[in-house]
Design a protein that fits this description.
Elements: H1 3-22
Region (Disordered): 1-24
């Protein structure tokens, strides 16, 4: 199992969501 891969994907998704929310 590649937890690192999943974490990276989730992190990127969260970052995008935050960026959209913050309006960057």
């Amino acid at each position: 199992m590649s937890l690192s891969r999943l974490h990276s994907r989730t992190h990127r998704r969260v970052l995008g969501h935050v960026a959209k929310h913050t309006g960057v």
